[in-house]
Write a structure and sequence with these properties.
By secondary structure, the chain is an alpha+beta fold. The protein has a domain of about 110 residues: Ribonuclease H-like superfamily/Ribonuclease H (Nucleotidyltransferase, domain 5). Helices cover about 40% and strands about 15% of the residues. The strands form two sheets. A five-stranded mixed beta sheet has the order 7-6-5-8-9, with helices on both faces. Helix 3 packs across helix 9, helix 4 crosses helix 5 and helix 7 packs across helix 8. The chain is globular. The protein starts with 15 loop residues before the first helix and ends with a helix.
Length: about 325
């Protein structure tokens, strides 16, 4: 009998065996973070005021300057800072998140790792902070749509009745064959939608929307505006449609419904960030776990840079 063909390209495969071989201990995880933040342990020493080589301090998560002994901490500014949970557990939780397209629950992480549910939930909350990105879509063709998440389904699909506090308005903008951004908003008024458009879409792009009146006037903001009339059950006319953003809503809603069942308004944005992060890297030639892990030191360096820009009082 012929062996089933492996459909995942070899360079995109990253199995549990490979993960365990690459990150067997906390020391290896720490060294990996250090090497990516400060290659070869060389970084600026505050006391020497020069670039210096730093060496691991035995039994600590610190590295010491080889000239003056001043300590630096690779975990400072990262989601792992001051954690009492092992780095291998953190890395494994990120690995499990990376291995699924629709997400994984904190309860499943509790079962897989043996940590408490409180710890698993906190880890996921921290990991999702890595996925927030400040993206301006380059177009030239983008689709924009609003939807509602949370709360019980009442009556026909569409905008919830006035005064409904359980549903959260979410606005998404996607480049055709490109990236997506999604935001929770207080409403879907013209001011809100126009504000997001000018903030996230480059001028002179073609913007495709449905017939919602709040989109009126996009052409006056410098965009070519094309609409599709969903209320008349028309979904495609030539190149005019919003099926791309509709596909993203389907991935997101089915993922949340199937894995998490419900997400409160307070945390919904972090889940949108996670699904957007996956979507925006769906064609990447780098394994998703590697992409997720790289965000640890990228976001840490950004936090350090912002802290250095803030003058002391």
């Amino acid at each position: 009998m012929a062996k089933p063909k492996q459909h995942i390209p070899k360079h995109l495969r990253y199995t549990k065996t490979q993960f365990e071989a690459q990150f067997p201990t906390d020391d290896v995880c720490l060294e990996h973070i250090k090497d990516n933040r400060w290659p070869n342990g060389i970084t600026f020493c505050e006391k020497c005021q020069k670039q210096r080589k730093h060496h691991r301090v035995t039994g600590r998560t610190a590295y010491a300057c080889d000239r003056c002994g001043t300590h630096i901490y690779p975990l400072a500014g990262t989601i792992f800072e001051k954690t009492s949970t092992s780095l291998t557990t953190w890395f494994y939780a990120m690995y499990l998140m990376a291995q699924t397209r629709c997400g994984i629950s904190a309860k499943q992480i509790q079962r897989e790792t043996g940590v408490t549910y409180k710890t698993a939930w906190r880890m996921f909350k921290q990991i999702r902070t890595l996925f927030a990105e400040d993206i301006v879509l380059s177009g030239p063709q983008v689709e924009m749509d609003e939807t509602y998440m949370g709360g019980p389904r009442r009556g026909r699909r569409g905008r919830p009745p006035a005064g409904d506090k359980q549903k959260t308005c979410v606005v998404g903008i996607v480049e055709r064959r490109g990236r997506v951004v999604a935001f929770t908003t207080e409403n879907a008024t013209r001011a809100t939608l126009h504000g997001l458009a000018t903030e996230r879409i480059l001028p002179e792009s073609t913007v495709f929307t449905d017939e919602l009146h709040s989109y009126d006037g996009l052409d006056k903001l410098g965009y070519e505006h094309k609409r599709i009339n969903h209320s008349e059950k028309v979904y495609v006319v030539g190149d005019t449609h919003t099926n791309t953003i509709g596909g993203f809503w389907s991935l997101t809603k089915n993922g949340i419904r199937g894995v998490y069942h419900a997400v409160g308004k307070r945390y919904l944005q972090s889940y949108l960030n996670e699904y957007s992060f996956r979507y925006n890297r769906r064609d990447s030639e780098i394994p998703m776990f590697t992409l997720m892990l790289s965000r640890v030191w990228e976001t840490a360096e950004k936090r350090v840079s912002r802290a250095q820009e803030i003058p002391l009082a």
